[in-house]
Amino acid sequence: MSERSPLLTNHAARMRQAFDQAFAVAPPSAPPPQDAVLAIQVNGQGYAMRLSEVAGLFADRAITPLGAAPAGLLGLAGFRGSVVAVWDLRRLLGHSESKVPPRWLAVVAGVPLALAFDEYEGLLRVPREEGAFRDGRPLVDVALLVDEIRRRKAGSA
Amino acid sequence: MTDHWTFNRKIAAGFAMAVLFAVVIGAVAVSALRSIVAANERLLSVNTQLLIDAARLDAALERKVSAGRGLLLSGEDRFVDQIREGRAELLAAVERLRRLAESDEGLRLIEAIVSTEQVHQQILERLAAQRRVMTMTSMDALVRAFDEQLAPRRDQFQASVRAFSTLQEQLMTRARQEAQANASSTIAFLAAAVAVLLVLAALVTYVLTRTLQRQIGTAVSHVQSSSAELQAAANQQATGAREQAIAMVQINTTIGELLATARQISESAQRVSEIAKQTLAAARTGDGTVVEANESVGAIRRQMDQVVSHMMELGKKSQQIGGVLDILSELAEQTNILAINATIEAAGAGDAGNRFAVVADEIRELADRVAGSTKEVRSLIEDVRGAVNTTVMATETGSKAVDTGSRQFAEVATAFRQIAGLVATTTDAAREIELSTKQQTSAVEQVNMAIANVAQATRETEVSSGQTLDTVSQLANLSRDLSRLVQAPATA
Question: Can you tell me the distance from the alpha carbon of B388 to that of B312, in angstroms, rounded to the nearest whole number?
């Protein structure tokens, strides 16, 4: 992020400067071993989601609710011609249901499933490491969540 | 009948009766007097005359004798005349005696005297004749003859005369006694008549006085009671006049106080008028100040309205900017999403997607920067909006304050106008008070004059009541005298 300045007049100049500088920098020859994570917020708490596990990030998509849906299933949404089931990440992580339906959708890779969360903070490139935390944020285990979803679907059917 | 007669008539009747009695008594007395006077007259004239003539006889005879003596002595003729004169006188006297004498004895004596005188005369003439022829030497014989012849005749004459005189004296004494007796009887008769008439007069007087006393007494008692009432009334009048005079003095004092009070009121009204004028001037000044203040307040409000409208414009503009920012935000977000998705695709593309991933990253960074700037701008816009709101609210507050101030100024202006109106009313009232106090003063002065007139009238009343009192007391005294005249004073 660029340095915050109360004076907007300098802001445009700085933006231009930063933009121009970006072209001046040579492309990195070998990217360091990094993990790209999405910094997200669920119920005011910060989480991290591996970008490799996400097929796409979308916001403000129309979710069509299903009648008699199991708890946590918000509805169905369409992405590039395919229909996915949208599940509430809050419920899945154990938080309470929010009154306001979440804006952001992260489509899970390889599964017609989308996880809805409250806020998208940005893309972080953190050093690759093991552990449940990335940059101090608890890592969302998508595979685990998918299994959980399958179980719930099976339970309700 | 007599009761209806007036006092005049009654008194006249009484007097008439008295006069009648007096006339009767007078007549009786006059007749008695006349008889007495006649008797006395006779006594005086006749009897005394007789005596005087008798004495004159003597005297005449003496003259004659002396004349004869003279003649005999001197033989003058003048003595003859004297003798004649004496004789004439004597004869005259004798004639008178004869005429007057009434008694027989007297007449007889007169004749005796006459005869004696004749004898005497004869002798005398004889002697005279003798003397004429005689000489002086026979004087003695003449004288002797005179003495011897004449003297006895003379004595006789004188004796007769004396006897006549004595007779006359007796007669006179008798006549006097008769006259006295007559007079006494007359006096007695008169006394009786007078007594009777006195009784009658007393009776009449008694009746008259009783009537008069009764009537006058009644009238006098009426007069006394009326005079007493009049005295009481005059006393009351005097007292009333005195009280009135005192009241006049009090009224005078009160009027003086009234005048002083009226003067004070007039001065106060003038002061009020002055103060009202000053107040009016001050109110007008205040009004002018209020108008000016109102104008400046109006100008302030106009300014504030302009500020508000500008602020509203600013708010609208910032809203528009917000709209633009929303677009930018949306763009940044969408760009971000696209960049993310591009990165994901690039990751799926393998090595060939690395350079694409770089570009996608740069796009993402750009989007982040835009988002960050947008956030900053939005926060600034929010600040501007907040400032605008605050300004608008402050302006509204100020506008409300201006309205309040304007309203208060309007109230003040109204109050000033009311003050001006009240001051005008006060000035009018003060003028009216001054006018009415002037009228009051003139009325009071008129009252003063009227009071002076009344005081004068009171004094005159007092004087006249004093005079009335005097008159009344005089009347009371007169009535008392009158009552005392008609009846004896009552024993205390």
Answer: 8
Which residues on chain B are in Cβ contact (under 8 Å) with A58? 337
Put simply, whether B358 touches A (Cβ < 8 Å) is yes
Predicted confidence (pLDDT) per residue in A38-81, tens digit: 999 898 889 999 888 899 999 888 999 888 888 888 899 998 88
Residues of A with CB under 8 A from a CB of B: 1-2, 4-6, 8, 11, 15, 18-19, 22, 27-28, 31, 36, 38, 51-52, 54-59, 120, 122-123
- Cβ contact, residue pair B355, A27, below 8 Å: yes
User: Do the chains contact at A54 and B337, CB–CB below 8 Å?
Assistant: no
Q: What is the mean pLDDT of residues A112-116?
A: 92
- Nearest-angstrom CA–CA distance, B126 and A83: 256
| Tens digits of residue pLDDT in B382-414 | 888 888 888 878 877 877 888 888 788 888 888
ipTM: 0.80
pLDDT of residue A30: 63
Per-residue exposure over B171-209, b if at least 16 CB sit within 10 Å of its own CB, e if not: bbeebeeebeebbeebeeebeebbeebeeebeebeeebe
Q: Which of B343, B362, B368 sits opposite A51 (nearest CB)?
A: B343
Full-model pTM: 0.41
